[in-house]
Amino acid sequence: MVAPTLTTSRLRLRFWRDEDLEPFAALNADPRVMRHFRAPLTRDESDLMAARIRDRMSDQPFGLWAVEVPGTADFIGYVGLSVPGFTAHFTPCVEVGWRLAFDHWGRGYASEAARAAQAHAFSSLRMEEVVSFTVPANLRSIGVMERIGLTRLPADDFLHPSFPEGHPLRPHVLYRLSRAGWMAGKQG
């Protein structure tokens, strides 16, 4: 039950290759990309993260796909679906998420790839809901969430349990999209 390759008009979401590790480490070390995360990652931390992503994609029909722009860039980051590893009022759930290299921001790639991941979640896998979350200051990701149809109810916002009390990254906003909402958006 391996995650399939997904394609859009400009992108290919595929299984990871060994040659993705170096550009993945570069984007994980970039303070601009990692601004709203705990800290940039070392090469070892980045490689370990990629190994976990690959392992999960090997035994389930979804994951955090490596994203390429055919004919332009072999690897620009990841976009996809994952199951958060913490407990909150909205878990268990499936999150749609992304992390792209800075040089590829502002081109609509995150939104385009996330729409493909959502379509896979709702039509192929028949999931009932996807969520996405980030810190309130991450306006770029919030913009992607809104462009792909997710909506926020402030009562859903939460304190991320991976951060200690008082940490500036602990408050998070939560966005949701139901399968019915996705279907209604396709009709409109």
UniProtKB/TrEMBL annotation:
TM region(s), chain numbering: none
Signal peptide: none
InterPro entries xrefs: Acyl_CoA_acyltransferase, GNAT_dom, N-acetyltransferase
Domain of life, source organism: Bacteria
Residue ranges occupied by any N-acetyltransferase domain in the UniProt entry: 11-170
Gene3D superfamilies the UniProt entry points to: 3.40.630.30
PANTHER family: GNAT FAMILY, PUTATIVE (AFU_ORTHOLOGUE AFUA_3G00765)-RELATED-RELATED, N-ACETYLTRANSFERASE DOMAIN-CONTAINING PROTEIN
Name by which UniProt lists this protein: RimJ/RimL family protein N-acetyltransferase
